[in-house]
Amino acid sequence: MDNFLNLVTTQGEAIFGSLWPLVWALVRIVIIVLPMFGCVAYLTLWERKLIGWMHIRLGPNRVGPLGLLQPIADALKLLMKEIIAPAQASKLLYFIAPIMVIMPAFAAWAVIPFQAKMVLADVNAGLLYIMAISSIGVYGVILAGWSSNSKYPFLGAMRASAQMISYEIAMGFALVTVLLTSGSLNLSAIVASQEQGVFADMGLNFLSWNWLPLLPMFLIYFISGVAETNRHPFDVVEGESEIVAGHMVEYSGMSFAMFFLAEYANMILIAAVASIMFLGGWLPIVDLPILRDIPGFFWLFGKTFFLLSCVIWLRATLPRYRYDQIMRLGWKIFIPISVFWVVVIGAWVVSPWNIWK
Questions:
Q1: Cβ contact 256:35 at 8 Å
Q2: CA 313 to chain centroid
Q3: What number of other Cβ atoms are within 10 A of residue 326's Cβ?
Q4: What is the mean pLDDT of residues 148-164?
């Protein structure tokens, strides 16, 4: 891999000269973003298939073999639909809102390491960057509700923003515990810190990952991520029986689809970050020669896919919460528990029984 990258750099500098760093950055961005669009599209198909199997019914199976062309058909349908803006809407903010929702979900991937030395920007403040950029999406939700100049979208936007902000606090505390144990904000360093310790020396990598000593925070982060993305059973923002379609009820066509693209892109991001923070990222489950030969990207993909399937499983299983139950869970349960565990982990790290040295 290093020899290939050196060859590409040499040839690129010979062709583009001083513009090569900019061209190479754009190429790497395209290499990350285009597959992400494909993953988002086919995550919708996997959700419909998995829920169909859980409910003992057929999922999409008509468009293409095994229904594999269904996401493409859905995309073409949405692209051909007319985009209608309300007459009294604030047009500029109305069309900016979907972009502000979807762009942070893709921008956060700039610091996600797919395997060792395979990351767009290996910055030391990667974890801080993800926490900052992912919190911008709430502005798009608020703008969507307010700029539509309609009461239903505005009420949905207020509910969505309150829910997102509430669970972001618990997610932030969960990531703080990972920072305390790894001693770094660099995502690659966080993964590297999880292949150290007694169990890792024995070859039992999965027992050295953060999910075991930080299990309460792992569960809080994962459940808060489900609530953060307005997924079932926390989807009262879009609950048709309660408030129509929430903040995006006045949108149509591709502008409407961008909100759902952002939801699925955020699902993938939350699952990938959880895999890196708590499940060892690209590290294999056990340290065996045959498993070490598998590229780290496939391990990260497998762990992310497993967590995404768990999110879909929740949708197929649990009833929707009331809004007051959702807010009580965030403020009265998750935040106090997460604050308590930050103190516990902090004391554990500075104690003689520190297992992360």
A1: no
A2: 17
A3: 22
A4: 84
Q: Which amino acid is at 162?
A: A
Backbone angles phi and psi of 115, in degrees to 5:
-165, -175
Distance CA 112, CA 123 (A): 10
CA neighbor of 113 nearest in space, from 302, 307, 300, 304? 300
d(C-alpha 226, C-alpha 275), whole Å: 14
Contacts of 202 (CB under 8 A, 6+ apart): none
Interatomic CA distance for residues 84 and 145, integer angstroms:
15
Amino acid symbol at 312: I
Backbone phi and psi for residue 118, each to the nearest 5 degrees, phi listed first: -120, 85
CA pair distance 317, 53, nearest whole angstrom: 12
R_g of the chain computed on alpha carbons = 22
25-37 tens-digit pLDDT:
888 888 888 888 8
CA distance 121 to 272: 16
As a whole number of angstroms, the distance between CA 252 and CA 259 comes to: 10
Structure tokens at 327: 């807010």
pTM for the complete prediction? 0.91
Closest to 106 (Cα-Cα) out of 201, 197, 38 = 38
**pLDDT value at residue 240:** 57
Confidence grade of residue 267 (pLDDT, cut at 50, 70, 90) = very high
